[in-house]
Predict the structure of Tyrosine-protein phosphatase non-receptor type 20.
Amino acid sequence: MELGEEQYVFLYDILLETLLCGVTSVAVQDVQKHIQRMSVQDPVTKTNGFMKEFQSLEKLTGLYRLCTYKEGEKLENESKNRYRGILPGDHYRPILMSSMNEQNFSGYINAVFINSNCQDDAFVVTQLPLKKTLSDFWSLVWDYKCTLVVLMHDPQDVSELNAQFWPEKGVIRHGGFSIKKISKATMAGYRETTLCIKHTDESQQTSLEVKLWQLKIWPKNETVPQSPSVFIGLIGMMEKHQQQQESDCHVLVTCCDGASRSGLFCAGAIVCDQIRSEGCLDVSQAVRSLKKRRIQLIPNKDQYTFCYTLAQSYLDSFETYGNFKH
């Protein structure tokens, strides 16, 4: 049986990743000792195991840059991007559908699909909306049934960015959508706002209930959140929420540029699922899967190391590692 071109490319990618990154999977029962070994600094290179692993992974960046960004580079879409250097790959971007009757419709939004550990395109990662893309943002939420929106900035940061996209009270309208605030509650480390979205142009009286979670444990000038345990708790709440939703629902994760913070939430979710469903931890593989869709995700060694911290925090939430032994 002959291999097709896509299969050859897939095998080549796997071989290259293995050559550059080595074997990075660790059995759950060995994670604690592995983290201790990785934390030791090499007296010659002044780097620890986390840094070495991240540097090896970064060598693959050239391979991941091979995808095309034609739609994001078009002149008509230039003003819809916060940063010219962070664009969605053509093969991984969601296309807006609910605005198709509008003039000059391109269906473009600066967003990418991200796989979870067990489901393709489980997450949608996007930048905070600009004033001119507010209706596009809500079109994205509506079209892909994003019943959960995770916002990776605290309230003050969002205010400074002038990027609040939901009403503090009553109803606001953006394009063909009305967004109504239903309730607000303060939880441990985050704020939850419940919203009701309606498409005003549709004849059917359909609506979408959306939970907006706003993280409050990641200060503006810090590279990682303050509390791994709260972060893990939020991921657990997300998993419970998704279990109650229809199979075609998505989780939307957003931060200022759609990269510098959003990837950490997705990576944390992947790492937790690895531990729970496979009995192993492979941070390198988790981060590689993210960077294939958007190379700017997990942009530094601090966030990469924090993925290990999240794994340890997740394991600490169980009384015994025996739960994961196969």
Summary: The chain has a mean pLDDT of 89.
